[in-house]
Amino acid sequence: TAPVETRKFEAEVSQVLHLVTHSLYSHKEIFLRELISNASDACDKLRFESIAKPELLSGDAELHIDVSWDPQARTVTVRDNGIGMTRDEVVANIGTIASSGTRRFLEAMSHEQKNDARLIGQFGVGFYSAFVVADKVTVLSRRAGAPASDGVKWESDGRGEYSLEQIDLPERGTAVVLHLKPDEDEFLKRWQLRSLITRYSDHVAFPIRMPVEKDDKPTDEWETVNDASALWTKPKSEISDEDYQSFYKTLGHDFNDALAWTHNRVEGSQSFTTLLYIPSQPPFELMMGGRDERKGLKLYIKRVFIMDAAEELLPNYLRFVRGVVDADDLPLNVSREILQHNRQLERIKSACVKRVLDLIEKLAKDEPEKFETFYKAFGNTLKEGIGEDQVNRERIAKLLRFASTKGDGSAQNVSLDDYISRMPVGQDTIWYITADSYAAALGSPQLEAFKAKGIEVLLMSDRIDEWMLGSLHEYAGKKLRNVAKGDLPLDEEGKKQQEEASKAAEPLLTKLKELLGDRVADVKVSARLTDSPSCLALSDYEMAPHLARLLREAGH
Ligand code: ADP
Ligand code: MG
């Protein structure tokens, strides 16, 4: 047989290993969740491949995940009879940073310069979390369909090198053996492993089995310890809040509870089930501003996992949503290319959008505290929908909240409907101002005339606001206008006053225009100001200073 080969980890892998083992220590138990999640992915992949090639399941069709421990050898083993890996796949998947999650983790950690466990908990750190509790990890794997002699043994102490060996493996799938560090004996107890499975992995859709214990020792008898059903296929009445929450944790790789969820079954010419969650904190990628490789929304077809399809199933501005979509009528051999142009999927997508917006509306109406949490975490992401989703623009706008001159300090809690309900008779415009900060908006001389007249002005200071306003010209039949733009709407009395004032100021205006020359387009008498002697104003078609600055920063 081939000799044992020793290789070095890719430089980044060593870095990840170092970061993971040092920063994850306070949550070290998640190694089990991560290994079970990989085993479950491997079972999903095999089930999917076996649709076209049933022979891959040969003689061993019951996919399952086994978690066992050996008190003598001081090992914990997670084994699956899923897809398995070839030698090349082992090298590619666990010797380099193949995993998208791991790569993002690395980028974020070096970017953030802080090893915040809360941050880490928000996404899968994957295979390398094994090294938090183990000082040696052995992986035994055989690809489904490959002969027994094509097994591969991978082993490493996580310090820069790993060994590879070709071995005989009678069964397909993968076993990950953790040789525990000296002070990690707690994981050699059945109840401890079992309670971690219940906490983080109860709703993995394959049976998780553990040896039955006798006289404090594992026996050869196996027992299924998780629920192992596809939670979303059960009737709502049979699912408790705890079930929903624990399924969310499995799905979203999150420590925290979800904020809210919506679970629906659509029957008819096209039947499908959706179970969609809003997290209580921004998921990791969102915090890092990343948009690529969205995970967390899984597409199933008749309970068979097909792929992560967040991009196909939800628009970008709802990228914080996690969940499952299970369609009855899509072809099982569907590819990503087909999905992108599939009309059935379009319908499912708009149903998902509707469900999520319904859910957010319900929070706004019935659970103000949760809505506030939601808005703090995802309000700015939601604003992208104003430009992105014309069909739902009005619904989204209804959910937005702003600071206001008649609001509650800098708190963003005034809705457009609140504003409209306070408009005096005759006012037909929703006025707003944009600035870099709340203080700058509030202190702007542009507000003077509005204050004097008692007209409410929305104070917008989030980066995204200016872009959003580019697509939000109207709400509920009222125009939205920037206080810095164009002429103020004046009543008859006001117009007369202004004409008179302009005439009186004619010599001064001519003088000023001469002095300022090309630097201004015009000098006018304004009704804008009450205390300040002058201000800069924009014509209707000019860019707001805030936006001009943003564009300059972006290199335009
Ligand atoms: P992720 O699961 O986010 O891809 P991981 O670090 O958890 O990242 O795993 C890295 C890769 O190693 C997986 O994508 C998969 O290709 C492979 N892998 C890990 N565990 C298994 C397993 N039990 N069976 C088959 N492949 C696995
Ligand atoms: Mg993983």
Automatic annotation (TrEMBL):
Pfam families xrefs: HATPase_c_3, HSP90
Superkingdom of the organism of origin: Bacteria
Histidine kinase/HSP90-like ATPase domain segment(s): 27-184
Methyltransferase keyword on record: no
Alphabetic keyword roster: ATP-binding, Chaperone, Cytoplasm, Nucleotide-binding, Stress response
Gene Ontology CC: one annotated term: cytoplasm
Subcellular location: Cytoplasm
Sequence positions that bind ATP: 34, 38, 80, 85, 93, 100-101, 122-127, 174, 336
Residue segments, region A: 1-336
Described purpose of this protein according to its UniProt entry: Molecular chaperone. Has ATPase activity.
HAMAP family linked to this entry: HSP90
Quaternary context: Homodimer.
Name this protein carries in UniProt: Chaperone protein HtpG
Native source organism of the sequence: Dyella dinghuensis
Lineage of the species this protein comes from: Bacteria, Pseudomonadati, Pseudomonadota, Gammaproteobacteria, Lysobacterales
Gene that produces this protein: htpG
